[in-house]
Design brief:
It is a single chain. The chain is mostly helical. It is built from 23 helices and 2 strands. A hairpin with a 2-residue loop joins strand 1 and strand 2. The longest helix is centred in the middle third of the chain and has 35 residues. The chain starts with a helix and ends with a helix.
Length: about 575
């Protein structure tokens, strides 16, 4: 029997088993019981549509009124990859058909989350435990690193909600275990599923081809590709049937332009950025308010260990002495993590949206445990006491932050008042709350956060979003010269115009059009275009003849005309 297969069959140590049992208990007890985000709401809608209506369209579901959707060929669809919803159709069909459970039932949400997220991630941690032991890391340190990964990183909050990140992370870990055991076909199946569930998993799928090739040459790569084919064929077949091409429907930017689309006022991941914006975003996503390292500093130890392995310092034996395919897997883990991080650091601006931390990094985060395990396992002597103390402090910080995020993964905790949206549009002279009072209010907001998928609630949210956008784009910035300020106002007009044109096209009678036409008038007014300003003020008053801001704007416009 080979060294690899012997290691993969090694029984898990008692400390490691204790960590796995503890994580299973947390999943059973603390998994949420309702959708509190558009992401899991749109996925529940797709599951409901598949089981109850035999379609992927959200049109007749309980979750049509949420923002994570696209409009294609006259129907609304979730813009999330469909594979996880397809998998969820099986347990929901049993719950709905045999036990008459609805998609909005809290028990349904828990069962679906356990089946689709908790179980794959737990099995992935079993695979990770075996890989940690294969590095030569002892049972105690293997349990410590596994525990810090499970309870001190992004994987904890996103294991408790119906989200793709935890599922994909578990499948990637299982695929690494399969590659270590030289099961290329299984690895292809797992990584194709991970990629079609969470597109970020395409990076480990690409980089894992190298250790697979090292293990068995082109024959192994062929088995890897054959394993990947069914899931990829289904994924691309769905894309073709809905959009007429192979591009994932979430990447069809034109499909996000429809009445009440939040993305007409928000930037989608992949949007163009300037260098200065990228630099500021890089800091915020690494060490700032949504920072990966500031929330999970134990990952700094993992990065440090990886760098030491790279330069062969501080280790008694280099990585080439590792058994089997571990050197190739370490390289795949490093390249995958770096690629995912660089992609989102350069191609996004919203820190994962209304969510805890950089949630996109959850897919590769568990892989980072392989680096300190290898570092510790390759050393001739134990870690020094002062380094153990540092690791303990970083671990305590990380566990605390992860549990904080688990309270409500879909409400971003803002640590300072200036990070709040209302601070950006606060009136001049506004006195912000002190830091303690601000944190108290933030804790209440996060702990009581609940998402409502009712039509009227969504329209109120959208109306407020238009108001905030209008106020933001009407602001005067001291750092802008006249041309930059005018360009800022014109950008606001362009974004609002798309929104209002869509609402006008369906003759929407909610307050959104009233507010939108007023802000269009305000921005035109600021640019000195009084004709356009008057036209938009009048349209706002046609919809609501006593709307105060539009009346005030019209009076100010008339006063200026009289003065001339």
């Amino acid at each position: 029997m080979s060294a690899e297969s012997t290691e993969s069959g090694t029984a898990l140590s008692r400390p490691v088993r204790a960590v796995l049992i503890a994580f299973a208990v947390v999943l059973l007890v603390f998994t949420k019981d309702q959708a509190d985000s558009w992401a899991d709401g749109s996925r529940l809608g797709t599951i409901q549509a598949l089981v109850e209506h035999g379609t992927l369209a959200l049109d007749d579901t309980d979750f049509l009124w949420q923002g994570d959707k696209v409009f294609l060929n006259g129907h609304y669809y979730s813009h999330q990859p469909p594979m996880l919803a397809l998998a969820g159709a099986l347990p929901y069909s049993i719950l709905h058909g045999l036990f008459d459970r609805s998609i909005t039932d809290p028990f349904t949400y828990r069962i679906l989350t356990w089946c689709l997220v908790g179980l794959p991630l737990w099995l992935g941690f079993v695979a990770l435990a075996r890989l940690l032991r294969a590095t030569g890391c002892g049972p105690g340190w293997s349990a410590v690193l596994l525990g810090l990964t499970a309870f001190g990183t992004l994987t904890l909050p996103y294991s408790l909600v119906l989200q793709q990140h935890g599922t994909a992370a578990g499948l990637v870990l299982l695929s690494f275990g399969a590659i270590h055991s030289r099961r290329a076909l299984t690895a292809g199946i797992l990584l194709a599923l991970a990629t079609t569930i969470d597109l970020t998993a395409v990076f480990p799928a690409i980089f894992c081809a190298w250790p697979i090739f090292k293990a068995g040459g082109f024959n192994a790569v062929t088995r890897y590709a054959l394993g990947a084919f069914p899931a990829l064929a289904l994924h691309f077949g769905i894309n073709w049937s809905l959009a007429g091409d192979l591009l994932p429907i979430g990447l069809h930017l034109e499909a996000f332009v429809y009445p009440f689309s939040p993305f007409t006022l928000m930037s989608l991941t992949g949007g163009e950025q300037k260098l200065g914006e990228t630099a500021a975003y890089f800091f915020g996503a690494t060490f700032g308010g949504s920072g990966f390292f500031s929330h999970h500093p134990i990952t700094l130890f993992a990065v440090f260990a990886g760098l030491l392995l790279l330069v062969h310092r501080g280790t008694a034996r280099a990585t080439e002495n590792l058994p089997g395919l571990l050197p190739g897997l370490l390289a795949a883990a490093a390249l995958s993590s770096l690629s995912i991080a660089l992609y989102y650091l350069t191609q996004s601006r919203n820190f994962g949206g209304s969510a805890f931390g950089m949630r996109w990094f959850a897919v590769f985060t568990p892989l980072l445990a392989l680096f300190p395990a290898t570092y510790i396992g390759r050393r001739a002597e134990p870690l020094r006491a002062n380094l153990k103390i540092v690791v303990a402090l970083l671990g305590l910080w990380s566990v605390g932050a992860a549990f904080l995020g688990s309270v409500q993964p879909w409400a971003k905790l803002r640590y300072f008042f200036h990070q709040r949206p209302d601070a950006l549009i606060a009136a001049p002279g506004h006195i912000p709350p002190n830091w303690g009072e601000h944190l108290r209010r933030e804790w209440i907001r996060v702990s009581e956060f609940r998402q409502d998928f009712e039509e009227i609630s969504y329209q109120r949210w959208f109306e407020d979003h238009i108001h905030r956008a209008g106020k933001l784009y009407s602001m005067r910035f001291d750092v802008f010269d006249d041309e930059q300020q005018a360009s800022w106002h014109r950008e606001g007009i362009a974004k609002l115009q798309v929104v209002i044109d869509g609402l006008d096209s369906i003759n929407d009678l909610s307050g959104c059009r009233t507010v939108g036409h007023y802000w269009l008038g305000k921005l035109h007014h600021l640019l000195g275009d009084r004709v356009a300003a008057g036209r938009e003020y009048d349209r706002s008053l046609d919809l609501h003849n006593s709307y105060g801001p539009a009346l005030k704007g019209r009076r100010k416009l008339l006063e200026q005309q009289k003065e001339q």
